[in-house]
Specification:
- The chain is mainly β.
- It has 2 domains: 106 residues, Jelly Rolls (Sandwich), CATH 2.60.120; 73 residues, Sandwich (Jelly Rolls).
- 0% of the residues lie in helices and 63% in strands.
- The chain has no helices and 16 strands.
- The strands form 3 sheets. Strands 1, 12, 13, 14, 15 and 16 form a 6-stranded antiparallel β-sheet that branches.
- This is HutD family protein.
- It comes from Rhizobium bangladeshense.
- InterPro entries: RmlC-like_jellyroll, RmlC_Cupin_sf, Uncharacterised_HutD/Ves.
């Protein structure tokens, strides 16, 4: 397990140049924006416009902050995403346009390369002692807001706003968490 501190996340421009993303974790670790197998990042969306296209990639978004945004995904009815919405999955290689709902938002973005990997993204509300199952070999828990201590197989630590815990041998185990926080669990599996 590795703690990825908020202050160490990598900041970089969006692929389409219209904003900035904060990369939490990527695999392989030195992968470029076009060469990753999986990638987890946050971004601030400050204006309406198209999403970057990522050929061969599947994507899931959750809104972390702000009033929300409407996504017009090619071939689907428009979908409103808010901080209370379930994360939304869609192919990252089709046209998608975002329209903000009264101001900027911050989102959490999970992407995996289709045909080899798949992923899930789940919101986890922590209020006291919680046991979080880890369903896939690679899991990442992002502490979006609040603070939580964790333990697993004798290892312990603390996560605060923006910190993440990357677990690369997680299959069929669980993470014991205690605290008050809003977190997101990413599970990445091999197809």
């Amino acid at each position: 397990m590795r703690i990825l501190r908020a202050g160490d996340h990598k900041r970089m421009p969006w692929k389409n140049g219209k904003g900035e993303t904060v990369e939490i974790a990527v695999f392989p670790p030195s992968a470029s924006i076009d060469g990753f197998d999986w990638r987890i990042s946050m971004a601030t969306v400050a204006e309406d416009g198209p999403f970057s296209i990522f050929p061969g990639i599947d994507r899931t978004l959750a809104v972390l902050e702000g009033n929300g945004m409407v996504l017009a995904i090619d071939g689907r009815a428009p979908a409103l995403l808010t901080t209370q919405s379930a994360p939304l999955s869609f192919p990252a290689d089709i046209p998608v346009t975002a329209t903000l709902d009264h101001g900027a938002i911050t989102d959490l973005n999970v992407m995996t390369r289709r045909g080899g990997l798949s992923h899930s993204l789940t919101r986890v509300e922590i209020d006291g002692a919680t046991r979080v199952p880890l369903p896939s070999p690679t899991c990442l828990l992002l502490c979006h807001r609040g603070a939580a201590s964790f333990r697993r197989n004798g290892e312990t630590g603390m996560l605060r706003d923006g910190d993440a815990l990357l677990i690369e041998d997680a299959t069929a185990t669980a993470l014991e968490i205690d605290g008050e926080a809003i977190a997101y669990l990413v599970a990445i599996a091999t197809d």
